[in-house]
Specification:
Blueprint: E1 5-6, H1 9-13, E2 30-34, H2 42-54, E3 58-61, H3 65-74, E4 87-90, H4 101-111, E5 117-119, E6 134-136, H5 140-150, H6 160-165, H7 167-178, E7 181-184, E8 188-192, E9 198-202, H8 213-227, H9 229-233, H10 239-259, H11 266-282
Parallel strand pairs: 1-9, 2-3, 2-4, 4-5, 5-6, 6-7
Antiparallel strand pairs: 7-8, 8-9
Helix pairs in contact: 2-3, 2-8, 2-11, 5-7, 8-10, 10-11
């Protein structure tokens, strides 16, 4: 841990975008989302909910029809038409081993867009197809699978248990190997940037280990990428890992706020995000 910077509320506050009087829904950031599936449509609802509550101008949902219907029932302001976006969130609630052709086509189209992209869960196998800056958000088992897929034939595959035993080291290795920012989820979240940035984020209660929590994190991250797309485009390699660490902090602090010492469900975390953002701006 001595080589890892502890990420704080003050660090996070610097990455909260506050709209000005001249901003409109486009200048505030538009996030494209390809998440959810026939089996797990709720992931789309959770990610979109979290993104909308983190602070951006618009969400374009471009996933399948069942998930789109559920997203619109929860958030009727979401746009399902094609159009320009400043960032993408893809893969949450998808299974690469059972992914329909239509979903794969949607994911690949997003990855060709060249804008900052948060890649989760069922799109991690496509990470090398990305044409823009990337943050991947695996847990231990998912990172093991990503590294196995990218390893040489004569390289022994790492296991989830080995990653769990030294998560920071494996996050850094994956970042170097894939040339992406890695946000490795866990009680302490490790963020490793291709520029050498190393951030450790410890925020949130153990109650955060609940179904859909990672989908909320993805939505927060996607919103931050969209609202800081111009800064990313200027080529400062430290921006992406900083945004990933900020997303992990907001997610954890929202878990604290929602829990108050008791159990929580994923939507509770999303509901708490605006209050966390308000506190950070006051900080």
């Amino acid at each position: 841990m001595e080589n890892w910077q502890r990420w704080t509320a003050g660090d996070t506050a610097r990455w909260i975008a506050v709209p000005g009087d001249d901003d409109d829904k486009y200048s505030r950031g538009v996030l494209g989302v390809v998440t959810g599936s026939e089996l797990y449509p709720g992931a789309a609802v959770l990610g979109v909910e979290a993104a909308a509550r983190t602070g951006l101008g618009m969400v374009r949902y471009r996933g399948g029809s069942r998930a789109a219907d559920l997203v619109l029932q929860r958030r009727p302001e979401v746009v399902t038409a094609a159009g320009r976006v400043q960032a993408w969130l893809i893969g949450s609630g998808m299974d690469a081993a059972a992914r329909p052709r239509e979903d794969t086509a949607r994911l690949r189209a997003a990855l060709r867009d060249g804008v900052p992209t948060a890649i989760d869960a069922g799109a991690l196998d496509l990470v090398r197809a990305a044409t823009g800056p990337v943050v991947i958000t695996p847990h231990f088992r998912e990172l093991a699978a990503v590294l196995a897929a990218s390893a040489d034939d004569d390289t022994d595959a790492v296991t989830a248990a080995e990653i769990a035993a030294d998560p920071g080291e494996w996050a850094a290795r994956a970042s170097r190997s894939l040339n992406v920012t890695v946000l490795l989820k866990g009680h302490t979240t490790f963020v490793a940037g291709a520029d050498g940035s190393r951030f450790a984020v410890t925020a949130g209660p153990a109650w955060l280990a609940t179904a859909g929590s990672g989908d909320i994190l993805g939505g927060v991250l996607g919103a931050l990428l969209a609202t800081h797309a111009d800064a990313i485009a200027r080529g400062d390699a430290s921006v992406l890992p900083s945004l990933a660490a900020a997303a992990a902090f907001v997610h954890g602090r929202a878990g604290d706020r929602a829990s108050g010492g008791g159990p929580i469900a994923a939507l509770d975390i999303a509901d708490a995000v605006p209050g966390v953002v308000r506190e950070l701006l006051a900080h």
